[in-house]
Specification:
Helix content is about 20%, strand content about 20%. It contains 14 helices and 29 strands. The longest helix has 17 residues. It has two domains: about 375 residues, Glycosidases (TIM Barrel, Alpha-Beta Barrel), CATH 3.20.20.80; about 100 residues, Sandwich (Immunoglobulin-like), CATH 2.60.40. The protein is α/β, with parallel strands linked by helices.
């Protein structure tokens, strides 16, 4: 998600607190410059649970336009590699054959171009929220991609960041007008500390200036000016005011709530003070975020936002941002616009909290409504869903890679109606967040499954995310069996694969997508676990997990999915002579839609005997004959 930085040097253009603002220096279009006027907005989605999402790092997918290839260095994983929106559009056939229905593309706005030897190819170093990243194309190219996707009934989700901007200023701690990195203290009479003025440690008072005589008050903020690397004052102009940032320095303890919310993200990414609004505070930070990102929807007709680093922003902001974006877009004809967030955390109660329509105490809500000027008061509504990180750690990692108890999955799923919102957001997707987690295996922040896992295990995990309640999300390259480790090794170029469509994992995902498309139960059915096991050794049910999908919005459709996650032995859903019980009547015939070579008949009291058992790291998707 983010890159770390070391010291860099250049000429700084000072903007001390209270200093003058800067002129726009983006060097490319600002919103709709050159392509005037809004376009007609459309609602492309009936039910987001019908979708299969494909996450793309645009820079690493396909190079369709050589004219925007500057600062490209294919020899280094931390540099730009040349992928762009034209390359994506040129390969929509490939994605459609895979079974993808929704593209989630990396951030589109202009970034700090390069910093401390790394490039902003990933998109999380925002510098200008009103301009597009010229490495990926212009507004015409982005519109063309969205239009081409819509013509194929595909949707486009854009990654956005509201928590921070890029490395756009430093704290002039010693007040010499230069961005320094130094060691302070002699180790005898005082402790030795390392001070990097782009990335100083968190101070609850705010970053303090200091000289040889001691502290001297809040450190001045200095915006740098180096057009060659796009270290220039940010846009829109409100972000050139130092008050727009918390200015407390780098988070060093993510368990400290104050640091989590108000600290700079490690690497010098500047934390925005997202509590501020014009009517109440005299600085329109909240309004600028809504205006900047909603405007890109109005200019391109994209269909949703994936929102980065949500746990680093107070929930007050999410209530304002999500509701004002939904209202603005609905007024212009864009409904069922999805907003799901990323909270990189295994605690289900933490990630679920951002999906709850919890109305805060009356005095807090009144305080928040001081920011509202359109007469539409805020409620408790927040995000439509979140990336299911608790399931990633509990199921994908612990069960499908590390052979831990499958009972862990059942326990986690039982918590979702408690921890997550159970009511759809007004003007949102129409689906309760607890019924629509975003299920994933790989992404750009974690090592790929195949870094340590097997192809058989990967296929089993893929079956899991395609059949579990929620929306499956595939990370680009998983279909080509990429196996990169931690960032940036998990951000490989896709084009050396030749966009092959005949590989084992590509065809397996294609089959899963087709099965899911034909089954209302697998897309919209409620879930009921019918077998889980505490056992992980040589026991007959070690590694077995099974659940039914039925009811809910699926009508009378039915599916029963059975897994053996054990890496070494055959297992079956039976223990001590007691087989798995389903809710089906005796005599119901089931066939395996995944492999097509097995069939079963339900016995008395819903008993179902799977004999022989399932091979290691394999699954059955059983549907009525």
């Amino acid at each position: 998600m983010k890159q770390h930085r070391k010291r860099r040097t250049w000429v700084a253009f000072a903007a001390i607190a209270g200093a003058a603002m800067f002129h726009h220096a983006s060097g490319c279009m600002s919103f709709d410059e050159g392509l005037q006027g809004d376009i007609e907005l459309t609602s492309q989605v009936e039910d987001w649970r019908d979708e299969v999402i494909y996450q793309v790092l645009v820079d690493r997918f396909a190079d369709g336009e050589r004219g925007n290839n500057y600062r490209v260095d294919l020899s280094a994983m931390g540099k730009y590699h040349g992928g762009d929106w034209k390359g994506l559009e040129d390969n929509l056939d490939y994605l459609q054959e895979l079974g993808v229905t929704t593209l989630w593309i990396s951030p589109i706005i202009k970034n700090v171009d390069t910093d401390a030897g790394f490039d902003g190819y990933h998109g999380y170093w925002a510098q200008d929220l009103t301009a597009l990243n010229p490495h990926f194309g212009d507004l015409a190219a982005l519109r063309s991609l969205v239009n081409a996707a819509h013509e194929r009934k595909m949707k486009v989700i854009v990654d956005i960041v509201t928590n921070h901007l890029g490395q756009i200023f430093y704290y002039d701690i010693n007040m010499n007008g230069e961005p320094d990195e130094r060691v302070a203290g002699d180790g005898v009479s005082s402790g030795v500390t390392h001070i990097n003025e782009y990335d100083p440690d968190f101070d609850p008072r705010g970053v303090q200036s200091r000289t040889s005589l001691g502290e001297a008050g809040p450190a001045p903020v200095v915006f740098v000016y180096d057009p060659a690397t796009n270290h220039v004052p940010p846009q829109p102009e409100v972000f050139q005011d130092p008050r727009a940032y918390n200015r407390k320095g780098r988070t060093v303890n993510f368990e400290d709530p104050e640091q989590l919310i108000m600290g700079d993200f490690p690497g010098g990414l500047k934390d925005v003070n997202t509590k501020l609004c014009g009517p109440r505070d005299g600085i329109a930070v909240k309004e600028a975020m809504v205006e900047s990102y909603a405007r890109w929807v109005e200019l391109t007709d994209i269909d949703g936002f994936r929102i980065d680093t949500v746990k680093h922003v107070e929930r007050e902001f999410w209530r304002y941002f999500t509701q004002k974006v939904r209202q603005r877009l609905a007024d212009k004809g864009k409904t069922n616009f999805i907003m799901f967030g990323e909270a990189f955390d295994g605690r289900d109660n933490l990630i679920g909290a951002f999906t709850k329509a919890d109305v805060p105490p009356e005095d807090q809500l009144a305080y928040e409504n001081e920011c509202v000027t359109d007469g539409r008061t805020l409620t408790g509504d927040q995000l439509d869903s979140v990336f299911y990180f608790s399931q990633y750690f509990t199921a994908i990692r612990d069960v499908f890679q590390l052979n831990q108890s499958t009972k862990r999955i059942e326990d986690l799923w039982n918590l979702r109606p408690v921890h997550w919102g159970t009511q759809a957001m007004e003007l949102g997707t129409g689906v309760a967040p607890s019924d629509m987690p975003i299920n994933f295996i790989d992404n750009h922040d974690v090592p790929r499954f195949l870094w340590t896992g097997s192809v058989e295990g990967l296929h089993n995990a893929l079956t899991f995310i395609f059949t579990a309640q929620g929306v499956p999300c595939i990370y680009y390259g998983t279909e080509q069996e990429f196996s990169g480790g931690n960032d940036p090794s998990n951000r490989e170029d896709l084009w050396p694969s030749g966009f092959a469509t005949d590989g084992g994992t590509f065809t397996f995902i294609k089959r899963l997508a087709a099965i899911r498309k034909e089954s209302a139960a697998l897309r919209k059915g409620a879930v009921q676990v019918v077998w889980s096991s505490e056992r992980t050794g040589e026991e007959e049910d070690a590694g077995v997990f099974a659940f039914e999908r039925k009811g809910g919005d699926a009508g009378d459709d039915y599916a029963l999915v059975v897994f053996n996650a054990h890496p070494d032995k055959e297992s079956a859903p039976t223990f001590g002579g007691s087989p798995m019980k389903t809710t089906l009547p005796e005599g119901t015939k089931l066939v395996d839609a995944l492999n097509g070579d097995r069939s079963f008949t339900v016995g008395p009291d819903g008993d179902l005997v799977i004999s022989p058992g399932l091979e290691p790291q394999s699954a059955l998707i059983l549907v009525r004959e």
